[in-house]
Amino acid sequence: MSKAGLKGYVKTNIFLTAYDESFVKELLKELEKQHRILEFSKSEVVDHFYYISVEGDARGFEEILKDKTPWYKVEVLEFS
How far, in Å, CA of 35 to CA of 48, rounded? Predict the structure, then answer.
């Protein structure tokens, strides 16, 4: 059963553009060490656009993204 929507539940959505697919694979490995990956997808419409959803607050990954990708958005959702 999903905890999404329950009070106190936190999840992070990461949207990014990456031209190096090996970077995305490494990012997923690092995320997986600290968070449970809920969803991962690569856009079929826009080349090099990825979406990753993880359980918990993954805001700290912005440091990695800012130096390695031309565009990203980290969205932390906290249910109250």
Answer: 23
Exposed, middle or buried, 39 (CB in 10 Å: 0-12/13-18/19+)?
exposed
The percent of residues in the chain predicted with pLDDT above 90, rounded, is 86
Assessment of whether the complete model's pTM goes beyond 0.85:
yes
Instruction: Spell out where the chain has E strands.
Output: 10-17, 37-42, 49-55, 71-78
Reported as type and span, the H/E element at residue 62 is helix 62-68
Using alpha carbons, select from 58, 78, 72 the residue that is nearest to residue 18. 72
Give 23-60 pLDDT, tens digit per residue.
Answer: 999 999 999 999 999 999 999 999 999 999 999 999 99
